[in-house]
Amino acid sequence: MSAPQDPGEASPHVGVVVPAAGSGTRMGGTRKPFLELDGEPLLVHALRPFLRDDRVVSVVVSLAPQDVDEITDWIRRMDDRIKLVKGGVNRTESVRNAVSVLPTSLDVIAIHDAARPLVTSAIVGECIDLANAGVCAVSGCPVIDTIKRVDEEFQVLETADRNVLWHAHTPQVFPADLLRQAYESGEVGTDDAVLLESFGARLQMVDDGGTNIKVTRPADLMIAQAILRLQSGDV
């Protein structure tokens, strides 16, 4: 559910972009958004916390072109706020395509990967609240392993200070005008927050506890299932 609002404060209008057009190379070519977790596609799990928030007025899912045309009627039936758009050649282009069809009147835009099915409503709400206050919110968790920087032959060059390092996950949530400016710049990045860094925007990490994993390889699906069962108490 949406976070409590001050009686005198207008509720923000929030748009959500879900990039889901990847080729699934590290999953053996399987389309990750349609892999099943606990009997439902990953995409359904990823969308649900956003659809539960009544501040969300529009959701755009960016899919591979063949998926838009062939196997997506059930996505449209989930909620009338959902629209579909064809993705691009990379993640940045897929997000840009989706942002371009969101309503222009939005206050906040959230980006969330379809392959992160374990995001909670609490994290979604906290990130939206920060973005509505003008702060770019990036969910993630502190690095717990020692991190080595290596050369092309995997020789260790240095050890990074893990005390200042975080894993960046999604959702990443932004004031809508800032995000649109960033995507109009034509830059390309591995996530959305990196595009905002060059604008001098204030970005803040939001600790999601580390269970908001991305399903990238086959073993990740088993890990996600175990986490889901723990969260539901079904152990």
Q: Quickly give the CATH architecture.
A: Alpha-Beta Complex
State the separation between the terminal residues, measured CA to CA: 26 Å
Radius of gyration, CA atoms, in whole angstroms: 18 Å
The largest beta-sheet arranges its strands as 5-4-1-6-10-7-11
Q: What is the helix content?
A: 25-40%
Mean pLDDT: 89
Strand content: 15-25%
- The CATH superfamily is Spore Coat Polysaccharide Biosynthesis Protein SpsA, Chain A
- Bulk shape: globular
> Which runs of at least 5 residues are low in confidence (pLDDT < 50)?
1-5
Structural class designation:
alpha/beta
Number of helical elements: 8
Q: How many strands appear in the DSSP assignment? A: 11
